[in-house]
Amino acid sequence: MLKRLNPRTNFDCDAMELAKLMFSADDNKSARDLGVTVDEWMQWKTGAEPVPKAIWLCLKQQKQLEELKPLQGFSLTGNRLDSPWGPMLTDEILRLPEYRKAARLAEKQADLIERLMMERDFYRDNLDRQARFGLMVNNIFKGDG
Predict the structure, then answer these.
(1) Which domain holds residue 38?
(2) Which parts of the chain fold into alpha helices (H)?
(3) Of 2, 12, 69, 121, which residue is most buried, by most CB within 10 angstroms?
(4) Which residues are 86's β-sheet partners?
(5) What is the DSSP letter of 77?
């Protein structure tokens, strides 16, 4: 005789959604991910024991996270967010606006330094030309005296 697989709960939830969540994944992997034994998982799956609400919420959350395709490659380990571009501490996420402001400030400072260097070179060349012109004019008028 075949075992009937009919997960149940002691709280109100959509039975079809619960069944999809329970049957859409590998039993061993699901039990390992949830930190339970395979026997416990199978008891919930067959309906011998009701599925705890925390397990149902965890399965639901895992499914929602899997549906977030743009966030694939990201994982949270302790207070560190691992992304495809490298790890970041969760405290740093709150500082991102400050980091952006600092980057813009550094860019503006680099532009200002470049402009000041160009102005310095212009005035240095202009002063040198005026000094040579002044010496030339001075030499012309000295000869008349």
Answers:
(1) 15-72
(2) 15-23, 27-34, 38-46, 53-67, 90-94, 96-144
(3) 121
(4) 83
(5) E
Position 50 in a domain: yes
Rounded distance between C-alpha atoms, residue 78 and residue 141, angstroms: 84
Rounded Cα distance, 27 and 50, in Å: 17
Using CA atoms, how far apart are residues 136 and 143, in angstroms rounded to an integer? Answer: 11
* Residue 34: Cβ-neighbour burial (10 angstroms; 0-12, 13-18, 19+): middle
**In degrees, to the nearest 5, what angle opens at C-alpha 35 toward C-alphas 3 and 30?**
50
Give domain status of residue 40, yes or no: yes
Confidence of residue 105 (pLDDT cuts 50, 70, 90): very high
pLDDT tens for each residue of 34-71: 888 889 888 888 888 888 888 888 888 888 877 766 66
- Read off the tokens for 108: 């503006």
Which residues have CB under 8 Å from 95's CB, separation 6+?
none
- In total, how many domains does the chain have? 1
DSSP label of 2: P
Cα distances (Å, whole numbers) of residue 73 to 59, 60, 62, 91, 125: 19, 20, 15, 20, 56
